[in-house]
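Cross-check.
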Amino acid sequence: MIESARGRLETRLVRYAKADTQSDGASNSVPTTAKQLDLQRMLVEELRALGVADAECNDAGFVLATVPATTDGPIPTVAFLAHVDTAADYSGAGVQPIIHRNYDGAVLALPGDPEKRLDARSAPELAGKVGETIVTADGTTLLGADDKAGVAVIMTLAESLVAQPSRPHGRIRICFTPDEETGTGIGHLSLEELGADVAYTLDGEGLGEVTYESFSADRAAVRIAGVAIHPGRARGKMVNALTLAAKLINLLPQYARSPETTDGRDGFLHLVEMSGNASEAHLDFILRDFERDGLEAHGEALQRAVSAIALLEPRAKLECTIERQYRNMRYWLEKDMRPADLAVEAVRRAGISPKVVPIRGGTDGSQLTERGLPTPNLFAGVHNAHGPLEWVSVEDMEKSLRVCLELVELWAGERRLG
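Predicted model, tokenized:
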């Protein structure tokens, strides 16, 4: 019996999720962790077994492959991308995917940690998934469906296109990327190597979502050098770097500029890591906003707080450096909306109501779009990413596959961009 597309998607997701592919933002290696290559090599073998003969993993850890065109003419080459790495926010080792078939609407207690529960508060979208197949981890790790659900959809897309040579489409490029979560991976892939005219990342959440607008992003690092001395003789001499770090945090806007108090189109200034001792402290921040001036304002707020601490304690040395990461893909996509418009039409043709929403984050597509390759983001059905309550509907993954199949046919009727 031939396994259904839904069954193949489920099988692939479970197999990929079991591979530990967590990336490491503190690493200077390319990719940042060697274990990402374990899955990448598996994906190359799988693509070749499907008949995608040119599949390979390059020196930077990117899997690249081509499904040849079935239609002649100057049709745009379309690329589909998904990342294999998982976030460092929660453990990605020893993932045990749990299949919840024919979900009945009840609370889902995860067996590895029964205190971890998917209910109306932690997973309100589950209310619309009664009767579907839900995949979770066991509560002790993240699932890694961000973005292995996208990887499974793209792999099944390649399989479907190879098996149906009568389906009209142009040249299709497949790309599985490392280090999306660290924001450092996609910079190691040239547009020439990817070889596409338009691209789509499958890294979105809710059913029917099409995203052509992302955060703009910077990262910031603050170093505080205090004055260390034996605490028994410290009066009037010690300058505790950790104390100054705490004062700095308290000086920052606590409302309307932190992730836990913002949503929608609000940006934020977020302390992601702090380390050190009385002698020296290091604080790492991320700055996010949909607009350039908002992003600049977050940076200015941080720099003002650092300057205030420096005035408060002139014996300390404080440094604040802000590094550019990526910018809102809308700035470039709005110049030619065809990639987004065709994605919306593909969602409609798949029988789904489109939801055009901004993503409160970034994708590989944010950087690719800025570099000249328009790359909107499509849904893969993942919810609660980066934590133990992550889940995905297999039916949503199947609908994502349908959208991709419709999309390649729509692009077969277009001519090259530019």
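The radius of gyration is 23 Å. The longest strand covers residues 216-225. Passed to J.P. for a second look.
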